[in-house]
């Protein structure tokens, strides 16, 4: 019997939350705080979670910490949410992480864009094929940040691995996204706008049906307001939400997204929800910029 992955596909066509990974005073992962942040997301109406995403500081976590974050997420979410576990690094590491996610009961894995300096397009297919082939029961979602990759290569991957069901597309070019999705197969995959709320309206107009979010850690209702508007085709309302979050996202995107996670954690710290600390190569927001983040957050009436 062929697996259709309909439940997983539906979960991707939504706000795909990327939880932060909070740290304790000694620098270790803070499990109780992480659970509380997850519970806030879940109670706020979020049903799709991506532990070990970039907003979760995936590349700054140790293998044991990544496993811990996955375990905590599955335990806290229970059976009522979809878990999309971030995996990556070398192939054996990514496969081990994917199998660990499967053993815990997660439904999907997101494969981080390979960070190898020499990525060929056929090698990209081979990398993802090795991971997807190791967990055929799981839905697999490539995280695409490579503007040179063609839609035909994604189609080639899915021909070999039918469990590749969705795409987190994070190339900042709406026209390129529209072409890529149609070359790969617009209806074949669930297209997730991987650059979050700022790009969601333009990417939805070209075929996306979900978007990732780090902002959702701070204000779940704001992210849900945007996707509700986009689902109904109400772009004027979606753009009002866009205007509401614009400055927050500009701060995150500044200097090559150097403060992408930092700004989110600063907002959470202003609410007393977690510590502001991030790990190198990120760094906490300077004192001079903290007040603006707190003021934006307070303006959302959270």
TrEMBL record:
This is Dihydrodipicolinate synthase family protein. Belongs to the DapA family. Pfam families: DHDPS. Keywords: Lyase. The keyword Cell membrane does not apply. InterPro entries: Aldolase_TIM, DapA-like.
């Amino acid at each position: 019997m062929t697996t259709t992955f309909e439940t997983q596909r539906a979960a991707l066509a939504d706000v795909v939350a990327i939880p932060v990974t909070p740290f304790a005073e000694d620098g270790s992962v803070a499990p109780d705080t992480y659970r509380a942040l997850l519970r806030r997301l879940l109670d706020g109406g979020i049903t799709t979670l991506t532990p070990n995403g970039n907003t979760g500081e995936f590349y700054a976590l140790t293998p044991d910490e990544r496993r811990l974050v996955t375990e905590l997420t599955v335990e806290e979410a229970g059976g009522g949410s979809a878990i999309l576990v971030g995996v990556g690094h070398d192939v054996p590491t990514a496969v081990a992480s994917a199998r660990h996610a499967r053993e815990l009961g997660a439904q999907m894995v997101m494969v981080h864009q390979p960070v190898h300096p020499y990525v060929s397009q056929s090698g990209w297919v081979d990398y993802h094929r090795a991971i997807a082939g190791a967990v055929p029961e799981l839905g697999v979602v490539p995280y695409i940040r490579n503007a040179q990759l063609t839609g035909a290569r994604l189609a080639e991957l899915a021909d070999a691995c039918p469990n590749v069901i969705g795409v987190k597309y994070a190339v900042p070019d709406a026209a390129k996204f529209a072409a890529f999705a149609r070359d790969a197969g617009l209806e074949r995959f669930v297209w997730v706008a991987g650059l979050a709320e700022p790009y969601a309206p333009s990417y939805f107009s070209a075929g996306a049906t979900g978007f990732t979010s780090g902002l959702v850690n701070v204000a779940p209702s704001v992210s849900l307001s945007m996707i509700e508007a986009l689902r109904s085709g109400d772009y004027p309302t979606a753009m009002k939400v866009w205007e509401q979050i614009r400055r927050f996202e500009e701060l995150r995107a500044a200097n090559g997204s150097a403060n992408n996670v930092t700004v989110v954690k600063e907002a959470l710290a202003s609410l007393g929800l977690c510590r502001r600390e991030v790990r190198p190569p990120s760094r906490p927001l300077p004192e001079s910029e903290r007040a603006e983040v707190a003021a934006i957050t307070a303006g959302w009436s959270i």
